[in-house]
Specification:
The structure holds 2 protein chains of 2 kinds.
Chain A (H helix, E strand, L loop, with lengths): L1 H4 L3 E3 L2 E3 L3 E4 L6 H11 L3 E8 L8 H8 L2 E4 L7 H15 L3 E4 L12 H13 L3 E6 L3 H9 L4 E4 L13 H10 L5 E3 L5 H9 L4 E4 L1 H4 L4 H21 L32
Parallel strand pairs in A: 3-4, 3-10, 4-5, 6-7, 7-8, 9-10
Antiparallel strand pairs in A: 1-2
Helix pairs in contact in A: 2-3, 2-10, 4-5, 6-7, 8-10
Chain B lengths: L1 E5 L2 E5 L5 H8 L6 E5 L2 E3 L14 E9 L2
Parallel strand pairs in B: 1-5
Antiparallel strand pairs in B: 1-2, 3-4, 3-5
Classes of the chains: A alpha/beta, B mainly beta.
């Protein structure tokens, strides 16, 4: 039964076993990473491309291979389309994957996406055959432009990277998920599992979590909490939440009330 | 000797060194690595043919934790 199989995320025709994408940035050690990946039940883990360290012991790629997860290279730290495109090409060469999480940021203080450079890089990488998952702001128009450019997924932020502030503009996020024809994956800003559940309830197909897990007091335990949260949020989305109402709506019947002598209904004047 | 910049540091390399030689200097295993010279990717299949030239800017990258 689909219900029992749990939530899935499908990107570019590939079904991933979990809607949770794990960002590996900030993890205290490779040992903790391995346990965290397992606890999160993720099928996709991001990595950055950095200069080789001749003294490095143990490779993150070996850990991820042992865990049986797919690797998603990012272009973190790139400020221009040119840098991001070159980084993506190097990632494809190094890791034998044409998937890339495209990040082109505007400055180091906000780490917010630079929309002009981002769109230019997305167009170029799609042309070159990349499967582009684009980290973007929570602007519905930019998300649409990225989809039109051929991105396989759009990844709007909830709040600035690493801020843990949650979803600052749930209305924008809902507008993005409502209109998108490609998966929407909430990326950045998540602080707690409840934020991830909320993202799924708002119609996201997945959630990328890095700092909220890797920099928590207990990354392994937190990863398992996020696994439950995305599952809960996805089920709630399918179940269909009740509309928000301005006034109360009694959940017990109001007919056939016993008469204890009091007023049957007290209705304040509303006008 | 050939003067080049390797991952941001000035290095003197024996005349005729190739990208494959440079990679071997930096890492025990060539898997999971990629090389750019002067802002262009050098495909793995071309590493042993590409001779390092004077003032080349070589970047050798791999996956690290991030994102």
């Amino acid at each position: 039964m689909a219900e029992e199989a749990g939530a899935r995320l499908e990107v570019a025709g590939e079904r991933l076993a979990s809607p949770l994408i794990l960002g590996s940035g900030g993890i205290p050690s490779m040992e903790v990473l391995e346990e965290t990946v397992k606890a999160s039940r993720t099928a996709l883990v991001t990595v950055a491309m950095r200069r080789v360290d001749p003294a490095a012991r143990g490779s993150i790629l070996e850990v991820l291979e042992r865990c049986g997860v797919r690797v998603l290279p990012n272009t973190a730290g790139c400020f221009t389309a040119g840098e991001a495109v070159l980084t993506a090409r190097l990632a494809r060469e190094a890791l034998a994957t044409n998937w890339v999480k495209l990040e082109v940021i505007g400055d180091e203080i906000t780490l917010l996406p630079d929309p002009v450079e981002l769109l230019a890089a997305a167009e170029q990488l799609v042309d070159e055959g990349f499967v582009v998952l684009a980290y973007t702001s929570d602007d519905p128009i930019l998300a649409r432009r990225l989809e039109q450019a051929g991105c396989a997924a759009v990844m709007p932020l909830g709040a600035p990277i690493g801020s843990g502030l949650g979803i600052m503009n749930p209305h924008n996020l809902a507008m993005i998920t409502e209109a998108a024809g490609v998966p929407v994956v909430l990326d950045a800003g998540i602080g707690a599992p409840s934020d991830a559940a909320a993202a799924m309830e708002l119609g996201c197909s997945g959630v990328l979590v890095a700092s909220a897990i890797t920099r928590s007091q207990d990354p392994v335990l937190m990863a398992s909490a996020f696994a439950l949260a995305v599952e809960a949020g996805a089920k709630a989305r399918r179940a269909g939440r009740i509309p928000r109402r301005y006034r109360a709506l009694a959940s017990s019947p109001t007919d056939d009330m016993a008469d204890f002598g009091g007023p049957l209904l007290i209705r304040p004047r509303l006008d | 000797m050939t003067q080049a910049r390797l991952n941001g540091e000035r290095r003197e390399l024996p005349e005729g060194s190739t990208v494959a030689d440079v990679v071997q200097m930096l890492s025990r295993s060539p898997s999971g690595l990629a090389v750019a010279v002067n802002g262009e990717v050098v495909a793995r299949s071309a590493w042993s043919a590409r001779v390092v030239e004077e003032a080349d800017e070589i970047e050798v990258l791999t996956a690290a934790q991030g994102g």
